[in-house]
Every structure is written in structure tokens, then in C-alpha cells.
Amino acid sequence: MALLVAPVAAIAQGSPLVIAHRGASGERPEHTLAAYERAIDQGADYIEPDLVATKDMVLVARHENELSDTTDVAARAEFEDRRRTKEIDGRRVSGWFAEDFTLAELRTLRAKERVPNVRPANARFDGLYTVPTFAEIVALVKAKEAETGRRIGLYPELKHPTFLLQGAGMDSVDLLVNALREAGLDDVDDMVFVQSFEVGPLKRLDRMVDVGLVQLVGPEGGPADEAGMRYADMLSPSGLAEIATYADAIGVPVTLALDPAGASRSLLADARAAGLEVHVWTVRKENAFLPEPLRAPGGPEQAGCVERLFASLRGAGVDGIFTDDPRIAVAPDPAANPACAAGG
């Protein structure tokens, strides 16, 4: 598919929020304090922790509640009997799940790179970092604010909240609200967005806290907690108007924001007409994650022409960009990759 081939010099202005997707996960294993701190040091406006809950009701940061992709749990003989198969949002998943471990048990695990074939340099950090709690992430942000003198935002996502409530009796909405209140981060002036692919949790949050709320929308399917509701219908003008009654922004994949030539789709204008910001996910530098016209010579791990993708999104006027590579998003340098310097 031809996508986003506009040269950087042709793209105008705009300063969308740089949202560090799972931290600077293009340079460190995702959802580790090291990844979050590196993202902050690179100038990210927000860091994004995905939140799941432990057996003893502590919020921790993992991309999924299943742990084997991002920790060494599968190699730990003492936890072999914790392996389970569960149905999560209509899909059968086998492995080890955060909600079956206490925090103390989870602390014995070590994080690892999720895609070592694409990010082999990150794999050298395997085994160095623990799974952080949300409280630790908040403490890191406050410490870095004191160190840098600038405000740093938090952009947590509640992962599978309805499954956790119905399947494990864990109310991650309540857990997050309590955590935000304890940290003094529950007011409209705080730099916090909370996101979910589900609808009901966001509506509950809208009644409980005054932070920004973001309805995530996938390229297909619909919310796990709303049978029969489709994301495509939610992105119609009437659907966007309904989202605006409880949320402040939508989070959409790049392909719903830009057409194959890199121009803005009508969704951006429709969202603004409904009073919603548009935050776009997820921009990554490696060839494996870029459309073919933006790939550089080399394998899937080679950095491609991601600066052009950032430029197209800025030109379209999106309000925020989720990225694994905040360093490039904050200060893109088209000359950094000679294979991209002449426009591909």
C-alpha cells in the first residue's frame, strides 16, 4: 500500500503531543522504569503505561495481563503450575496472567524485549528490570518534574477492564481512580489522559474524575463490553457526538487518520466538529512497522523513513502521536537516515 510519501519539507507546522508509547520502547524493553525515564529525558510530553492488576489488587504496567511475551515467567520452574488458558474479550489466550500473581511474586520476574527479532539491541537489557507498579511510575514522573522543571503527563490505558471485573473480581476502574486521587492527579488541570478500547469504563471514569478521557478505536471490530457496537459506527458523525458526551479525544490507528497519499481523512474534521481531539497510534521507526514506501534498504530491524510519517501527521493536524521513538518525534532529523534524505 502506498502511504505517507510526502517529503518532510512540504509538511507544515503543528505541534501534536508526543506520547511515549510504553515509554521509549524503541530503545528499552517496554513498560520499564528505564523506558519511561528515557522517554522523559528525550522530551516526551506524556508517558503511556498500560495497566493490569495483580492478585492482591495492585496496578502494574504490562501491555497485556498475559506475561510471557514481556517477562521471563515461562522460564521460571516455580511458576509452571500457574499456566492457564483463559477467554479474554472473545479470544482464547494461554500463558501466565498478572491477576494470578501477588505483587511480591511478580517482583521476582524480570522484563524482556517483546520483539527481539526487530529490536535485537533492546534484548541486551533483558533481565535488568522489574515490572513497575503504577505508584512507582507516578513517583518517577514527579521526580523528573522536580529535576527538569517541566510538567510531564501520564496517559494510562486500562487493559481488559471488563474481563478483570467479571473474570477475576478486580475493578481496575476503582483501583485507578483511587491511585489518581492519592497522587493528587484527578483534576482537570492535571496532565492525565485515561484511555480504553471499552466504553463502560470510560463512562464510569467520567462520573468519578475530571481528567482527560480517550476512547480508543480499532480498525475493525468493536468494544469488548458492548456487544453489537462497531468501531466503524462509533466514528460516524453521530457516533462521534455520542463519544463526546463522555470523552475528550479519540485514539485511532494511523490508517484511519491519513489516506494512502498521506492526506488527512474526513475523520479528523468530523472529530473536531464533535469537539474531540484526535490522537493517533502507533508510530515506530523500524521497517517492520512502516508501510513499504517508507522502508529503508535492509531487514525488518532497519530504521526506515519514519520522519516522513511524523511530518504527514503533523501536516494533517492531529493532536497527539503515540510513538515508540519519542526522540525522533520531538526532533526529527530527515538527514539522519541517508536512505531517506532524497525523498525515498
TrEMBL record:
Entry keywords, A to Z: Glycerol metabolism, Hydrolase, Signal
Similarity remark: Belongs to the glycerophosphoryl diester phosphodiesterase family.
Short name of one Pfam family: GDPD
Domain GP-PDE: 16-333
Gene3D superfamilies the UniProt entry points to: Phosphatidylinositol (PI) phosphodiesterase
Keyword Signal attached: yes
EC number per UniProt: 3.1.4.46
Protein name: glycerophosphodiester phosphodiesterase
PANTHER family for this protein: GLYCEROPHOSPHODIESTER PHOSPHODIESTERASE GDPD5-RELATED (PTHR43620:SF7), GLYCEROPHOSPHORYL DIESTER PHOSPHODIESTERASE (PTHR43620)
Catalytic activity: a sn-glycero-3-phosphodiester + H2O = an alcohol + sn-glycerol 3-phosphate + H(+)
